Amino acid sequence: MAGMAFEIAWARAAYPALGEGFRHFDAAAGSLVAEPVAAAVDAVYRGAVANRSEAFAPGRRAIGIVADARRAVADLLGADPAGVVFGNSATSLVYLVARTLGQSWGPDDEVVVSRLDHDANVRPWVQVAEERGATVVWAEFDPATGELPTLQYRDLITDRTRLVAVTAASNAIGTRPDVPAIAALAHPVGALVFVDGVHATPHQPTDVTALGADFYVTSAYKWSGPHLAACVADPDTWAWMFPPKLRPSSDAVPERFEFGTPSFASLAGVTAAVDHLAGLDPAATGTRRERLLTSLAAVRDYEADLFARLVGGLAAIDGVRLCPAPADRCPTVSFRVGGQPPAETSKLLGEAGICAFAGDYYAWEYFTATGLRETGGAVRAGIYHYTTAEDVDVLLEAVRALAEHA
After folding, report:
1. pLDDT tens across 153-201, in order?
2. What total of structural domains would you count in the chain?
3. Where do the Aminotransferase class V domain residues begin and end (predicted)?
4. Do the domain assignments include residue 400?
5. pTM, two decimal places
6. HSE (CB half, 13 Å, CA atoms) of 187?
């Protein structure tokens, strides 16, 4: 059943930190934590939760917390709970997969990466390929449009390609590449597809099967959760991968890929964050997966309308230069104000209570290719589901004032 129109007041009520009065355009670097998430984390730290053991209740609670978190992430992404691997960060998980897969690579193999991606989905693959003597092949974005043209992959992907790494959405300019089309070119030659979903997951419904992703990584702290990440794949895919590990640790999937004792409190927070996302449309019904699809579709529509207001307003300010990007994108824009260094713009906005990052945001290849990195990158403003029209108008007025004096 379809839910009601997105209610911003309903969404914002879950974030006590908003009471401090800051205007947050920094969720791409890390969103605020929802109150149910903080409560779930607190409950674990205050309760009797031991390390995992079937022998006593506190140990069984830990087992249940881990299982609940796997089911929650699986519901969020349309994945199999038995294929959910947790790690400290998306970066650490990409390195884990790259180093494990790379054990079988050699000089006859190729890896395709993109200059649109966050460096976490570039450097691990480049470094492992170099170590193994494999060839790195680069997909280029169109600097005039911000698109990642799909047609180039027809030439880039060959029968030597072992893996294609691509983002589901650029963390710099929001571009959503056509991941299913890229995967459809990769799979017939036996190549795996690793999708960076860190920036995309908070802003739209996700179905890893529809994307054609063999691996999909996401960070909970980008969708109102704790600082924890997950990488999902088919359990059968994980089964033939063997990372270096301690001898006494479990050889089962997915535990084989999780090193040491996990943070049970953070995992409880992950489950709470997914439940929170599922309730963003208060009229959504059905299973948690169904409620997630409904709520995140409502989020997508709400953010798109607000983002159009932001981009249109910035484009109308004399002296503001936007980084080119397609109209259909995640709600993220990068810009410069006259000749002002981006770090200075960010600082001045911060003094006005507006949170917006400046720099290259680890989109190293993008800002290098555009020639902007050496002069400070750009200022990034993103819409999240707790952003209001008033927030946008306050940002636009502040940028307009800066532009007049830049």
Report:
1. 999 999 999 999 999 999 999 999 999 999 999 999 999 999 999 999 9
2. 2
3. 25-395
4. yes
5. 0.97
6. 12
